[in-house]
Amino acid sequence: MIETASAAWDAYAARAPDRRPTNGVGARTWFNWTQYPDHGPGVELLGLRPGDRALDLGCGSGGNAAHLASLGIGAVGVDVSTRQLAKARERWPDHPGVELHLVDALTHLRASPGTYAAVYSVFGAVYFSDPEILLPAIRAALVPGGRLVFSQRPAVEGCYGAQASLIQRGPDEDPAVVRRWDYESDSWLSILRDAGFAACGAEILPAPLGGRRTEGTLLVRGQRPG
Ligand SMILES: C[S@@+](CC[C@H](N)C(=O)[O-])C[C@H]1O[C@@H](n2cnc3c(N)ncnc32)[C@H](O)[C@@H]1O
Known about the structure:
By secondary structure, the protein is an alpha/beta fold. It has one domain (5-18, 48-223): Vaccinia Virus protein VP39 (Rossmann fold, 3-Layer(aba) Sandwich). Helix content is 25%, strand content 28%. The chain has helices at 5-15, 63-70, 82-91, 105-110, 131-141, 185-194, and strands at 53-57, 74-79, 98-102, 116-122, 142-152, 161-167, 176-182, 198-205, 217-223. The strands form two sheets. The chain has a seven-stranded mixed beta sheet with strand order 3-2-1-4-5-9-8. Helix 1 (5-15) crosses helix 3 (82-91). The chain is globular, with a radius of gyration of 17 Å. The N and C termini lie far apart (43 Å). Bound molecules: S-adenosylmethionine. S-adenosylmethionine is lined by residues 5, 9, 58-60, 78-81, 84, 104-105, 122-125, 128-129. It comes from Streptomyces spiramenti. Residues 55-146 form the Methyltransferase domain.
């Protein structure tokens, strides 16, 4: 059964490990696009300057938004999970520059025309929303020239479009089920262009060398024409 997104994501929050107190170089805040620690590009993908506003779609416990705020960027995080936002508020109490809202991504975007210099999502709401509906709303919420960047797992060969994604709850309970959207890079490029984005790119970042895991990270980007 597909239940409400907030109940499913509260179940996820109950089992998700917390972000480490510091990263590999001892920093308290950092940006991570991938499923691996200390791996991949950072905040530079967003092209932001101090004073800009950025929106995190499905911010979870808020680590990436807190990092933007530490750089002087006005970071807004939205999430449908009460538990995720409670973790974020506990981890970043009174962190200046971070604004958190318990709201669905699409609802927030539709209320925010021409507002953000960047919209990003790390295995977040973009992964779990129909892109044909969400991407035009993101474009409209960006300022001209503003960037969208998102990351998620690469599609499994032959499994494209809406997929069932299971969230395990424990041995005595059924998993929660949400929908996620998977495509190959070429398909993302045409979906982005159809939604009015320019400067589009999509690539798979390889997993860290030397580890046992081989799954890469799909990184997708586009820009609202200026
Ligand atoms: C896998 S977690 C990733 C959290 C965070 N971005 C990170 O990197 O740790 C996915 C998050 O997206 C949120 N989410 C999923 N669908 C959403 C939607 N439509 N609107 C807002 N948040 C959503 C979930 O509640 C959850 O916190």
